[in-house]
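Technical annex, item 7. During the second reporting period the consortium partners agreed on a shared format for inverse folding records so that results from different sites could be compared directly. Each record opens with the tokenized structure and is followed by the designed sequence. A conforming record, contributed by the partner at site C, is shown below for reference.
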């Protein structure tokens, strides 16, 4: 009886992983951009909207959240900080555009789509899909609504921008969609930095009562290590 209950409780997870893997394979076969993210996202979203019981356990989700935090933190380098002074005008213009566009979308979602304030804010924020969904859910928003709204934006941009570059700019994309990562052949020091970031980072963030502690804790410690020059690699990708 206990075994049957355990198997039954894992059906939504197995179903979500199966549908996601099928979507990723299909998008990869069609040679669409970001196949493993967009393919699984599209198919699992369709399944959820259709009423299928798909979900991920909290613990498994948090493991992925920590990995995303390390991946984001690894993008902060000393070279990036040195170049910030030459981007003053561009950064100011971008911040102004983000602020205005976000206010307009937030107003629309709150007034006409009837989202609650937190869900409206994180749905309108033009950040990463995973980041906004995770932080918004941690802050009390409807993470499904945030994910769906952000996914619509990502899908629209990813599916239209390549055609716009080709039609208006004559742009020829590179063969690889993503740069090749370092794999698992990393120095011990790099593994040590990542190990400390994924274990100590979330713990410290929780002690400081930061929102999305698993994401921000790992990201902050990883970014400090990269800015200080203690590490230079991103997480292994294969």
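Designed sequence (site C submission):
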């Amino acid at each position: 009886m206990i075994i049957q209950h355990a198997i039954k409780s894992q059906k939504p997870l197995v179903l979500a992983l199966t549908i996601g893997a099928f979507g990723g394979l299909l998008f990869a076969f069609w040679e669409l951009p970001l196949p493993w993210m967009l393919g699984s996202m599209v198919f699992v979203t369709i399944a959820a909207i259709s009423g299928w019981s798909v979900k991920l356990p909290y613990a498994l989700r948090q493991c992925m959240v920590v990995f995303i935090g390390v991946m984001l933190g690894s993008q902060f380098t000393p070279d990036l900080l040195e170049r910030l002074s030459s981007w003053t005008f561009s950064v100011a213009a971008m911040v102004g555009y983000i602020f205005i566009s976000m206010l307009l979308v937030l107003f629309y979602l709150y007034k006409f789509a009837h989202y609650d304030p937190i869900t409206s804010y994180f749905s309108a924020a033009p950040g990463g899909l995973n980041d906004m969904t995770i932080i918004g859910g941690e802050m009390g928003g409807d993470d499904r609504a945030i994910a769906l709204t952000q996914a619509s934006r990502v899908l629209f941009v990813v599916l239209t921008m390549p055609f716009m570059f080709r039609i208006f700019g004559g742009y020829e994309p590179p063969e690889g969609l993503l740069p090749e990562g370092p794999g698992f052949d990393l120095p011990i020091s790099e593994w040590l930095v990542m190990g400390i970031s994924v274990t100590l980072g979330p713990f410290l963030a929780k002690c400081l009562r930061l929102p999305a502690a698993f994401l921000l804790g790992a990201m902050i410690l990883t970014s400090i290590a990269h800015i200080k020059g203690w590490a230079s690699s991103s997480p292994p990708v294969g």
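DSSP finds eleven helices and no strands in the chain. The chain has a mean pLDDT of 80. All partners now use this format for quarterly exchanges.
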